[in-house]
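Each lists sequence, tokenised fold; shown next:
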Amino acid sequence: ALVRAGWARRCPACAAEHFPRTDPVVIMLAQHDGRVLVGRQPRYPAGRYSALAGFVELGESVEEAVARELFEEAGVRATAVRYVASQPWPLPFSQLMIACVADVASDELTIDRTELDDAKWVDRDGVRAALAQAPGAPFLAPPPYAIAHELLARWARGE
């Protein structure tokens, strides 16, 4: 039976409570020389780019996951990782999004085409234009309810 307003289930036989799992996911912006890296997945609407993301693997720290995902998806090496914020993403994904910004050593990309359709570097003016949905913006920003939008907004403000 559902209990705790749907946050748990109680076994009718033993009364034990069971809670749904939550998978940690890092979502991050790589930054280099005043530009930020955004990527697009095949399932995104046309023109949409966002922060890169990936699951934290067993035994891995958030910083290690950020560095690994950036290298695997875009071929860039993180030199420093900074936590920014988090966002629960419970339904339908059961995820906790952990947002970070990473300095990277180089802007040279090696894109994993099984993960990303494309990735590109965008400067602050380009990010601001995308967030404002300005005509001619270099990409379509993630929706305002997504932590990727907040991550881009904070980066655009220099935070």
User: Anything to note?
Assistant: The longest helix spans residues 62-74. The radius of gyration is 18 Å.
